[in-house]
User: What shape does this take?
Amino acid sequence: AAVHFDVPIPTHGFSFGLLPGPAEVELTPATYSKYNASEFVYFYHTRNFESAAGSTKFRHAPVTNIPAKMTSEAKTYNLSSVGFGIDNPVEWNHKYSHSKFCLVIR
Assistant: This one.
């Protein structure tokens, strides 16, 4: 999809993660320059155990349904941080804060 620069962009916006405790992740302004500078396309990590209310198949789907090779979806997937958990908080924060999009399944 083409980016239309004549469409007004909101003057304020931010994104943040759902983490335990305050100040775990710095608030990042949602700007076009931040979007362009992000090294990862998607960020999605889940735990490799059963979730409540039958949601496990939905939470695991982005990790277990890997796109077919040589497709545009595979290229995007390979440029993303998708998987079962990141135990290192520094690595998690880097990949989260350097992604264009963060997928959340609730």
